[in-house]
Amino acid sequence: MPKQPILVTGAARCGKSEWAETLAMTSGLAVTYIATATIDPSDADWQARILRHQQRRPATWQTILAVEDLASTIERAGDKECLLVDSVGTWVANLLDRSDAEWEDLTHTLLAKLSGSVATIILVAEETGWGVVPAYPSGRLFRDRLGMLSRQIGSIAGTVYLVTGGHVLNLSQLGQKLGEGERLLKSLNPVKM
């Protein structure tokens, strides 16, 4: 039976990866950490960030690098596995050079694999676009693609968490999925003929 994914979203350095790691640890399943970042030895800051993430993870976790082909990695997971995908934003950044049609195909395939997976899947996604519109086309493209993909994942997720200000909010308990509001309003105010 397919399981609904879990989405953990939030701003930079807010603790979203730590919360996702906590969820994975408490799953009771074998955890596979799906890293989407490429390793750049010339970028010391990036290397330090990756090292901090590695040091927090238990030694028993397997790590797989999925820079581009995230859907196939998800497809191979079994029902006794927990996949922790960190992060959706980095995966989007890796594929910014793809055309709109290619991007649509990639996201359609990813969402289909997420919807059909029997594994427990926790995805970490960055929140962007809460401020100034990026001045460069690539920044706008990244913001728009990540925002739409997070929305699409959130629509199929069983639980969505927002991590901000050092606190975790379960948005699935506090709010409603976009689109449900329209159905609720229609049921409360039926169109009279």
Automatic annotation (TrEMBL):
Enzyme Commission number: 2.7.1.156, 2.7.7.62
One example of a Gene Ontology biological process annotation: cobalamin biosynthetic process
CDD domains documented for this protein: CobU (cd00544)
Function: Catalyzes ATP-dependent phosphorylation of adenosylcobinamide and addition of GMP to adenosylcobinamide phosphate.
Active-site residues per Swiss-Prot or TrEMBL entry: H53 (gmp-histidine intermediate)
Similarity field: Belongs to the CobU/CobP family.
Keywords in alphabetical order: ATP-binding, Cobalamin biosynthesis, GTP-binding, Kinase, Nucleotide-binding, Nucleotidyltransferase, Transferase
Positions annotated to bind GTP: G10, A11, A12, R13, C14, G15, K16, S17, A35, T36, A37, D86
Superkingdom, taxonomy of origin: Bacteria
Gene Ontology MF terms in the entry: adenosylcobinamide kinase activity; ATP binding; cobinamide phosphate guanylyltransferase activity; GTP binding
Coiled-coil regions, chain positions: none
Catalyzed chemical reaction(s): adenosylcob(III)inamide phosphate + GTP + H(+) = adenosylcob(III)inamide-GDP + diphosphate; adenosylcob(III)inamide + GTP = adenosylcob(III)inamide phosphate + GDP + H(+); adenosylcob(III)inamide + ATP = adenosylcob(III)inamide phosphate + ADP + H(+)
Pathway as given in its UniProt record: Cofactor biosynthesis; adenosylcobalamin biosynthesis; adenosylcobalamin from cob(II)yrinate a,c-diamide: step 6/7; Cofactor biosynthesis; adenosylcobalamin biosynthesis; adenosylcobalamin from cob(II)yrinate a,c-diamide: step 5/7
Pfam families tied to this protein: CobU
Descriptive protein name: Adenosylcobinamide kinase
